[in-house]
Task: inverse folding
């Protein structure tokens, strides 16, 4: 429960490198997410070459934090495994959230940057990572050791909770 | 980490009631999910009237477990808060995953049933819960005390992990 309440987006990182094993552990945890019909259509590209990290902001305008960051994970949808058509954005949302929580649990900071359904960002990753036609880039998570501990926040909004029927906000 | 690896879909429940406070705690944790531009477009309907739970499988064919189950949570997208168009299925996927993890951490069992983008299921919830036009039903999570402890599973697939570029499966 504590991990759920204390995870925040972390956008500034120490220059200290991140052991790839920690990222692989988080990718493993992401694969334990539920998926529609248990289709598990995900693919993960761990990106740690500096020249690739630096290229990302050129096609993904809100991913400026990638420049100089040690590592990132591109989560993709593989259409070959698509047995519950239309549900992959939900499945991969759950997988990305597991990735973020597992990184946070290990003391790492991370921020989820949106890729799908923005055509320019998708095309950028397809080209950069030589993705085949059936593999759709979905989210890119930038990872590093947090420069500072992000402050706790309270996102609870009582007015968004309803009982049995909608009764206004 | 343990919670991420041990959460499984639970489809059979004890008849024992579920204190609403536990469900509210999980709904609160769901609101701590990240969202595109931090739009937090979610709304939550906690459903615990038996006649409503029993009605759900009539319009949502894969939600048969709702019949006789003590409680469920319908997560919706409120278009009034939509500042990152096209990203709500991802945001609400992360929120649903937080909900499931928080339920699991409290010893409850749950299963995520898909609603959006299936028109018949969406229309069923809109009618049953009297949702206004701007509120889109997205996922329905059925909740109860697990009848049995689900077995651990290993979903790790090494061949889905790639480094920097796609190099086949």
Result:
């Amino acid at each position: 429960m504590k991990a759920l309440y204390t995870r925040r987006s972390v956008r500034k990182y120490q220059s200290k490198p991140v052991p790839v094993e920690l990222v692989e552990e988080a990718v493993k945890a992401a694969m334990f997410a539920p998926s529609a019909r248990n289709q598990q259509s995900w693919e993960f590209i761990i990106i740690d070459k500096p020249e690739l990290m630096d290229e990302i902001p050129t096609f993904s305008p809100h991913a400026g934090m990638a420049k100089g960051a040690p590592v990132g994970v591109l989560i993709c949808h593989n259409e070959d495994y698509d047995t519950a058509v239309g549900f992959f954005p939900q499945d991969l949302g759950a997988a990305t959230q597991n990735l973020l929580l597992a990184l946070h649990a290990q003391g790492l900071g991370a921020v989820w940057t949106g890729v799908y359904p923005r055509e320019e960002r998708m095309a950028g990753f397809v080209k950069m990572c030589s993705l085949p036609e059936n593999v759709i880039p979905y989210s890119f998570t930038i990872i590093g050791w947090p420069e500072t501990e992000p402050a706790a926040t309270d996102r609870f909004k009582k007015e968004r909770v309803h009982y049995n029927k909608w009764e206004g906000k």
In short: Chain A is about 30% helix and 20% strand. The mean pLDDT of chain A is 96. The longest helix of chain A spans residues 88-105.
